[in-house]
Amino acid sequence: MKESMDAQAGLAELLQWYADIGVDEAIGDVPVDRTRVPEKAVVLPIATTAPESPATIARATVSTSASVPEAVPVTGTIEAVKEAKALAAAAKTSEELKAALEKFQGLSLKRTATHMVFADGNPAARVMVIGDAPGTDEDRAGIPFAGGNGQLLDKMLGAIGLKREENVYITTILNWRTPGNRAPTQAEIDLSLPFAQRHIELVSPAVIIYIGGSAAKILQQTGEPISRLRGKWLEYNSIPALAIFHPEYLLQNPAQKKVAWEDLQMLQARLKEMGVL
Ligand code: URA
Is the pLDDT of residue 80 over 70? Predict the structure, then answer.
């Protein structure tokens, strides 16, 4: 009797631990095509939970003559990345790109999220603001930077004459919230990147603003932290790009607002110089 109660308490603790670390869905990160399980070689996508750089998908090939374990996510990513690239390339407008993303079935995040988050603001704006991934508020609202982070972002932009309804276009690299807001895996980034890159190409902004280190690192293809990326002009395919602190970080570290203000002033000066403001 005592043993069974101990076992139950252990299970409850384990479930609580899963909930605490954000495991709220009993499905994998990568779709499994069970009709295409190879007989001898299993290609295992290695899910990195801390995306430091968007290197090509990390994979390990495990040769085995033993039987293939049933539940391993064996296929999907390489084919899905190819499909993502083809769909993104075929889109001739942002609306077509949005429709392509809606059609794309290669990213399982779509099944756990409530809404797709594509963009907000003025599609004709010359300033493109890019975040990494939608969170809980964005998932609920279906637009980027929708909650407290969004309110602070709007204030920051407003302080230098930028307004999302007028002269800013806002998007995210990933278009669906990750379960429990965990860090996106490398496979999820690789599957989202073709759409994000095409989105930038189609909008063709005069200036890009990365909100936070993750967005900057993914699009600049670097492992450098935000502390090294901010405060200087970067380039994304010849477009001037500036990385600024994420509003969430500023809410937690208000002392950094002074530095963020310096970055915003630097941005404002450049926008004035370019005739954007
Ligand atoms: N970070 C946020 O807080 N919201 C977004 O929409 C994107 C990145």
Answer: yes
185: in domain: yes
Cα 220 to middle of ligand 1, angstroms: 18
Element housing 244 (H / E): strand 239-244
Q: How far apart are CA 5 and CA 15, in angstroms?
A: 15
Q: Residue 66: what residue type? A: A
pLDDT confidence bin for 56, thresholds 50/70/90: very low
Ligand 1 lined by 192 (C-beta under 6 Å): no
What CATH number is associated with residue 88? Answer: 3.40.470.10
5 C-alpha vs ligand 1 centroid, how far in Å? 43
Number of domains, the chain: 1
136 in a structural domain: yes
Q: How far is the CA of 71 from the centre of ligand 1 (A)?
A: 33
* Nearest residue (CA) to ligand 1, atom 8: 131
At residue 154, the pLDDT reads 98
Mutate which of 117, 128, 132, 152 to test ligand 1's pocket (most atoms within 8 Å of Cβ)? 132
Q: What is the mean pLDDT of residues 233-255?
A: 98
Helices 77-90, 94-103: axis angle to 10 degrees equals 150
- Domain presence at residue 43: no
Domain that holds residue 164: 78-274
Per-residue pLDDT for 120 more than 90?
A: yes
Q: Per the domain annotation, does 223 fall within a domain?
A: yes
Distance CA 266, CA 241 (A): 12
